[in-house]
Specification:
The complex is a heterodimer of chains A (161) and B (787).
Chain A: E1 3-8, E2 11-16, H1 23-30, E3 49-52, E4 55-58, E5 71-73, H2 87-94, H3 104-117, H4 123-129, H5 141-150, H6 156-160
Chain B: H1 16-20, E1 36-42, E2 48-54, H2 56-59, E3 64-69, E4 105-106, E5 112-118, H3 121-128, E6 132-137, H4 144-147, E7 163-169, H5 174-182, E8 186-194, E9 206-212, E10 217-222, H6 227-239, E11 246-249, H7 265-277, E12 281-284, H8 287-293, E13 300-308, E14 314-326, E15 353-362, H9 376-394, H10 398-405, E16 412-413, E17 419-420, H11 425-435, H12 441-450, E18 454-463, H13 471-476, E19 485-491, E20 497-501, H14 510-522, E21 529-532, H15 550-576, E22 584-587, E23 590-593, E24 599-601, H16 602-610, E25 625-630, E26 639-648, E27 655-665, H17 672-692, E28 723-725, H18 745-764, H19 778-785
Parallel strand pairs in B: 1-12, 10-11, 14-15, 20-21, 27-28
Antiparallel strand pairs in B: 1-5, 2-4, 2-6, 3-5, 7-15, 8-13, 9-10, 9-12, 13-14, 16-17, 18-26, 19-20, 19-25, 22-23, 23-24, 26-27
Classes of the chains: A alpha+beta (161), B alpha+beta (787).
Chain lengths: 161, 787
């Protein structure tokens, strides 16, 4: 089996993998980072979104071997070492943007990627960007609200609607 | 305003931090030493005779530990059904066997035939591919009415036919109902389909079986909404393991919506195989497997008739429903189209005569069972659609017609066996008109028209029966279980509290809201209360979380246990302060003697309970831990009124939801933030059902919508922001918190609202469209517009 090496959340990670091993399997089973989830088998749901060399990627759509040498960031790498949440994570808690939590890591990783490209997205832009992330619990209301809040926009109006 | 950490405060959820940082503990995150993996070989035909399953090649594949087939389970119990329905003639339903692995026949695509256990998941999957199957494909029955034809192939050869039961409710009402229709001034009839759905919790099901040869104990880790129920069903009926030798753990669970209530073959298999192989055995469903093995929802075909007198008062309702059971009876399947559906046919209205007929049918499709709302969405959909149609036929305002027929006096005994304790349907309708700005609709419609869009307004009411359920009542109705809940409140020496509840949280935030209740009762900070759930080793028993029952039943058990704790603590406090127990008051975590300045803190009392040096040992035991079981006296009856405005593109038939408003009455509220979230999520699923989702089979029983490429899940850009309100509160009269439950409301109330809105838009646009079956896809809407 070929060996693959990459940097995950700033630390070196390597392991022997089969050619067919997906990046998400490598992260969950070899690196032991189980925050990245698998919710489907057709690259639709987005529960497995991680950042690879600064791009948001569905980790079920990439072989581990393709990430050789890459800088990978997972949900576990988003907060500060002292436990302080990333502003997007904090906004999700403040605005109840999660329920069962299963889609949440992917949602947060997608939202962070969106805000890096578009720091003040409109409601429509957020909804469009999340097209590849499925949530079954929230009806998306508080997810969209949390992302707007994380980008510094006033969400008081939404609550009052 | 309520202060933080009490009943009524919108505390942020404590469970969020682990979910947001990737440190949750879902079942697939559990890996045990020496773990092996199972892959199930499933049928790819809907109906067939299993002539031969040759596993010899698979057994020699690398890493394979053992290959199991139906023969291994011939002597093992089948999956039990937890509810027996008695038909119109007093006969029990037809109840087929449901083996863990297929015996002699396969009956739906996805039916498990063999199970390969290997060192790795990949090895198990590779080996399953070389199992040789000889399946003689048989004609499949898919359409329910065709399944009841005399010459239809039988799903179960040992049964008389494909009719599970023919249920009449209330059979004694039938003659009066028929007479009311004879006397009616107007009758509105509607035939409709309540489309089959797939629950699609984002976490696929997972099971890890473990066996300890030294103790003989089995443990199952599973994605369940009710681990105690799984322990009972699997232990007693399938594997013959008594409860004290079987532990079931369901840790963090990524959504359920009903589909994780039921006991599944894979759970029994992993537990069985772990013992047979003396290795932990793990199974993780792919999404594709979930589509063919998770119990599906809805799938009713109904004709409903509504009779009105000359003054537009409802005088009778008569329905005939075909309910799809799929190929086997899932755990609670028979109850859904009957006791969770027929009993709700009165809705929010005074209709004196109601008769419901349900024919439950076996087909060669995946089993159908409860999905968010379970029977109540089906009842609400047909009732609210036929009322809307009646209003249009009579030329009256649909809101006015509803208001005219509302139940306004409580308690109200319906003609379908339930008694509503409280409600105020005019209040929720008033609130809806306000938050939905229904008065502004006409101006918005004119704006839409300028853009060339058709705009419609749909309004809808619902009532549901939650807080399931009084055990003696459901026992009479065929339940093979009690539906109480239990809780243990363990107070530790330094005052912190561990609450062990039989309810299960898989997104509902119980760890936050349940802690608010206990903290509020004692007057301590919520951080001093920990909620533990999901482990049969903790709470004494549990019927779990579904039917919006957790706070109403589980919360009530917790309140009763906390009351017992407080009663004992009061005795200890009285002793410490040398006062009479009757003079002791508890406020803000301090026990005081009324009329004096004497006080002892909560922590002083709890410490005394565990260090009983100065303690009334002759009167009470040391320690401070109490358990309560709570069996509800009645269902609870949340209700509400919903409004939706849609735009329909006349060129394409595409429907866009422009506004959605929900005014609910859930009784008292523990955490309004969580309640809002539950309603949002329910509406999201309702929009999915109304516009997008459809679980479709072809005539051979092949599932056409077996992945997210084909099954249209609602995405963020399919839905709007929702205006929700739960300020109308008529507290439940029979549970200690006055709560009704909020988990299913959104999914029950929203589908008819949306269909009503689309029909309204089309009619305003000059199209004579009376009904379109869900999902209202562009092609269906466009076709309807073409006549």
């Amino acid at each position: 089996m070929p060996q693959v090496s990459m940097t995950v959340n700033g630390k070196p990670a390597s392991g022997d993998v089969e050619g067919r091993t997906l990046l998400v399997e490598f992260l969950r089973e070899n690196v032991g980072l189980t925050g990245t989830h698998v919710g489907c088998d057709t690259s639709q749901c987005g529960a497995c979104v991680v950042h690879v060399d600064g791009r948001d990627v569905k980790a079920c759509t990439m072989f581990a071997a393709e990430a050789e040498g890459a800088e990978v960031t997972t949900i576990e790498g988003m907060g500060e070492p002292d436990g302080t949440l990333h502003p997007v994570q904090q906004a999700f808690q403040d605005h109840h943007g999660l329920q069962c939590g299963f889609c949440t890591p992917g949602m947060v990783m997608s939202a962070v990627a969106l805000l890096e490209k578009n720091p003040k997205p409109s409601e429509a832009e957020i909804r469009d960007y999340l097209e590849g992330n499925i949530c079954r619990c929230t009806g998306y209301h508080n997810i969209v609200k949390a992302i707007m809040a994380a980008s510094g926009q006033d969400v008081g109006r939404i609550a009052a609607e | 305003m309520p202060k933080d950490a009490t009943i009524g405060a919108g505390d942020k959820r404590r469970e969020d931090v682990r979910f947001l940082t990737g440190t949750g503990n879902y079942t697939d995150d559990i890996n045990l030493n020496g773990q092996a993996y199972v892959h199930f070989l499933r049928s790819d035909v809907a109906h067939g005779r299993l002539n031969r399953v040759d596993t010899s090649a698979a057994e020699t594949m690398p890493g394979v530990l053992r290959v199991f087939t139906g023969a291994d389970f011939a002597e093992v119990g089948g999956l039990p059904c937890g509810w027996q329905v008695t038909d119109r003639h007093g006969q029990p339903m037809q109840e087929p066997a449901h083996p863990v692995l297929a015996q002699a026949k396969v009956r739906h695509v996805g039916d498990p035939i063999a199970a390969v256990v290997a060192e790795t998941r990949e090895q198990a999957r590779d080996a399953a591919e070389v199992i040789e199957l000889d399946i003689e494909e048989l004609p499949a029955v898919v359409d329910m009415k065709a399944a009841l034809d005399g010459d239809a192939p039988k799903v179960h050869d040992e049964l008389e036919n494909n009719l599970c039961y023919d249920w009449g409710f209330v059979e004694d009402n039938k003659a009066a109902v028929d007479a009311a229709f004879e006397a009616a001034a107007h009758v509105t009839t509607l035939e409709l389909v309540n489309n089959r759905l797939v629950a699609n919790a984002m976490e696929p099901r997972v099971a890890v079986g473990d066996f300890n040869r030294a103790t003989g104990d089995s443990t199952l880790y599973t994605t369940s909404q009710n681990p105690h129920v799984i322990r009972l069903l699997m232990g007693a009926f399938v594997l013959g393991i008594p409860e004290h030798k079987l532990r079931v753990v369901s840790p963090d669970v990524g959504g359920g919506f009903g589909s994780k209530i039921f006991h599944y073959a894979e759970e029994a298999f992993c537990t069985y195989a772990a013992k047979a192989l003396n290795r932990p055995v793990k199974w993780t469903a792919t999404r594709g497997e979930a589509f063919v093995s998770d119990a599906q929802g809805r799938d009713h075909v109904t004709t409903i008739e509504l009779a009105l007198d000359a003054d537009n008062n409802f005088t009778a309702i008569r329905t005939e429903t075909y309910a799809n059971m799929g190929a086997y009876l899932s755990t609670f399947a028979p109850s859904v189209p009957t006791w969770l559906h027929g009993t709700l046919m009165a809705g929010n209205y005074r209709t004196p005569n109601i008769y419901v007929n349900v024919k439950a049918v076996f087909t060669n499709t995946v089993p159908v069972d409860a999905y968010r709302g379970a029977g109540r969405p089906e009842a609400t959909f047909q009732l609210e659609r036929v009322i809307d149609k009646a209003a249009r036929e009579l030329g009256v305002d649909p809101i006015a017609l509803r208001r005219q027929n509302f139940v306004t006096e409580f308690p109200y005994e319906t003609p379908v066996a339930v008694a509503y304790d409280t409600g105020d349907y005019n209040a929720t309708m008033d609130k809806l008109e306000e938050i939905g700005d229904l008065g502004g609709f006409e101006a918005r419609r004119a704006e839409s028209e300028k853009k060339g869009m058709l705009r419609g307004l749909g309004v809808n009411c619902y009532i549901e029966a939650c807080g399931i359920a009084p055990s003696n009542l459901v026992g009479q109705l065929g339940a093979r279980a009690g539906l109480y809940e239990s809780a243990t409140v363990r107070v530790n020496a330094t005052g912190g509290i561990t609450v062990m509840t039989g309810s299960h949280s898989h997104g509902q935030g119980h760890e936050t809201s349940f802690a608010q209740v206990v903290a509020d009762m004692i007057g301590i900070d919520a951080s001093m209360v920990e909620i533990e759930h999901g482990d049969t080793a903790n709470a004494p028993m549990g019927m779990g979380t579904y039917g919006s029952r957790s706070i109403a039943v589980g919360g009530s058990a917790m309140v009763r246990a906390t009351e017992k704790v407080i009663a004992k603590a009061r005795k200890i406090a009285a002793h410490l302060m040398e006062a009479s127990e009757g003079d002791i008051e508890l406020k803000d975590g301090q026990f005081t003697v009324a009329g004096t300045d004497k006080s002892v803190a909560w922590g002083d009392v709890t410490l005394a309970a565990y260090v009983p040096h100065n303690y009334p040992l002759e009167e009470i035991e040391p320690g401070l831990e109490e358990t309560a079981f709570y069996d509800p006296a009645n269902f609870t009856y949340p209700s509400g009124a919903y409004a939706c405005e849609v735009e329909v593109d006349p060129e394409t038939g595409k429907v866009t939801i422009e506004r959605f408003a929900a005014a609910d009455d859930f009784g008292n509220i523990i955490n309004p933030m969580i309640v809002d979230g539950q309603v949002h999520g329910g509406i999201g699923q309702g929009i999915g059902q109304a516009l997008l989702e459809n679980c479709a089979y072809d005539e051979n029983g092949q599932l056409l919508s077996g992945s997210y490429m084909d099954y249209a899940m609602p995405r963020a850009d399919d839905v709007p922001f929702y205006a929700v309100d739960h300020s109308c509160q008529t507290p439940c009269t029979h549970n200690p918190l006055g709560v009704k439950g909020c988990g299913e409301a959104g999914a029950i109330g929203s589908p008819p609202t949306i269909v009503n809105a689309v029909v309204d838009a089309l009619q305003r646009g000059g199209h004579d469209v009376k009904h379109i079956d869900m999902p209202l896809t562009p092609s269906r809407v466009w076709a309807a517009m073409q006549g």
